């Protein structure tokens, strides 16, 4: 059943890794080849980390374990993938939001930037034989919020990037 779980996790993991990669790309200064390598390393790290913690029948089970978090501490899985392309934690803190939470659950990947930000859904699929998922209306502001969220409280990283 692990192999089946592995196949099932692929979409969610790839949505999560692509999102963090997009954040890095938007910050600028990292080559496409490095970004591709980062995305693959992060996907691999997530696959390993989630292997025994993926429960499609009870999607919320293990959600805390699978959550990626940057909160003045770098998430170890993001840090590990960044290390593979030579990015230090200090550099990551300059490039990524200082408060980021990413939930990777069966059938849904969502994120929040800032402690009080709205939760935005990156990927959602209906659960087989399950109840219909929440409607997507009212979530359109997430993209603008993502841009606004970058420039909110912690402005220091836009200044610090000059020294690199």
Automatic annotation (TrEMBL):
Pfam families: BTG. Residues 126-152 are annotated as: Disordered. Residues 134-148 have a biased composition (Basic and acidic residues). PROSITE patterns: BTG_2. Residues 96-115 form the Anti-proliferative protein domain. It comes from the Eukaryota. GO terms for biological process: negative regulation of cell population proliferation. One of its GO terms (cellular component) is cytoplasm. Belongs to the BTG family. This is BTG1 protein. It comes from Pterocles burchelli.
């Amino acid at each position: 059943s692990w192999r089946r779980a592995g196949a099932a996790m692929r979409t969610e993991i790839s949505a999560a890794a692509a999102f963090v990669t997009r954040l890095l790309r938007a910050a600028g200064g990292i080559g496409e080849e490095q970004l591709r390598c980062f995305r693959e390393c992060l996907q691999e790290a997530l696959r390993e980390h989630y292997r025994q913690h993926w429960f499609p029948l009870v999607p919320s089970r293990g959600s805390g374990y699978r959550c990626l978090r940057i909160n003045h501490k770098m998430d170890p899985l993001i840090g590990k993938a960044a290390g593979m392309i030579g990015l230090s934690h200090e550099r990551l803190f300059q490039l990524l939001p200082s408060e980021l939470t990413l939930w990777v659950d069966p059938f849904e990947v969502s994120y929040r930037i800032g402690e009080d930000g709205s939760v935005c859904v990156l990927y959602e699929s209906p659960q087989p034989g399950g109840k219909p998922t929440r409607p997507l209306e009212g979530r359109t502001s997430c993209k603008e919020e993502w841009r606004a969220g970058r420039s909110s409280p912690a402005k220091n990283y836009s200044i610090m990037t000059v020294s690199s």
